[in-house]
Amino acid sequence: MPPEPLAAVVLAGGASRRMGRDKATMPHPGRPDLTMVEHTVVVLAGRCAPVFVVAAPGQPLPTMDARIIDDPVRGVGPLLATGVGLRAAAAAGFGRAFVSAVDMPNLTAGLVDQLAVHHGADVVLPWDGRDHYLAGIYRTGLAERIDVLVAAGQRSMRCLIATVVTRRVVLPPGPALTNVNAPSDMRY
């Protein structure tokens, strides 16, 4: 059976405070010819179509094979940006989308496939001793729930996960879920 069609949502507009510069436009540590956002789009485009990149207002990004969407408000965290991306995926006709942070240099399409086989939940997250909120599959209809949470002042992905049916897929610790937060994390 062919794999379920999924959209992808890449969250690229984070503040990158600990990194000290925009993570999305940093060179990928293993492929310096690509930025982190370009690498993420290339990986996800191998499994998901379309790919939406949610960017901060005015954030300069390279040209890539993805639909760029502006996050309407800068600096409120990934919850609002996730809702923006899920709404775009729903408008494109998709019931589920893989939501990814831009700072996962070892992300693979295989991780998406490991999660995609699980149905019946609003959210499917990888779990390797902790939840990875920005490497999971989300039902696109959650955009409305996110709007309610954001309007109530919530900013945490944890708030969303606590209010929906979530399935955690236990995975062994491995490089696919590693993210980079500081310059020292970019050295492999």
Helix/strand order: EHEEHEHEEHHE
How much of the sequence lies in strands comes to 15-25%
For the largest sheet, list the strands in their spatial order: 3-2-1-4-6-5-7
CATH level 1 name: Alpha Beta
Spans of 5+ residues with little confidence (pLDDT < 50)? none
Q: What structural category characterises the helix and strand content?
A: alpha/beta
Mean pLDDT: 88
Shape: globular
Report the C-alpha radius of gyration, rounded: 15 Å
Return the CATH architecture: Alpha-Beta Complex
How many domains, in number, for the residues? 1
Q: Quickly count the helices.
A: 5
Proportion in helices: 25-40%
Distance between the termini: 37 Å
Could you name the CATH homologous superfamily?
Answer: Spore Coat Polysaccharide Biosynthesis Protein SpsA, Chain A
For the report, how would you describe the main beta sheet? Answer: 7 strands, mixed
Count of beta strands: 7
Overall description:
It is a single chain. By secondary structure, the chain is an alpha/beta fold. It has helices at residues 36-45, 78-91, 109-116, 142-151, 157-161, and strands at residues 7-11, 51-55, 67-70, 96-101, 123-127, 135-139, 166-170. The protein has one domain (7-186): Alpha-Beta Complex (Spore Coat Polysaccharide Biosynthesis Protein SpsA, Chain A). It is 25% helix and 19% strand. A 7-stranded mixed sheet has the order 3-2-1-4-6-5-7, sandwiched between helices. α1 links the parallel β1 and β2 (51-55). The longest helix has 14 residues, at 78-91. The model has no long low-confidence stretch (mean pLDDT 88).
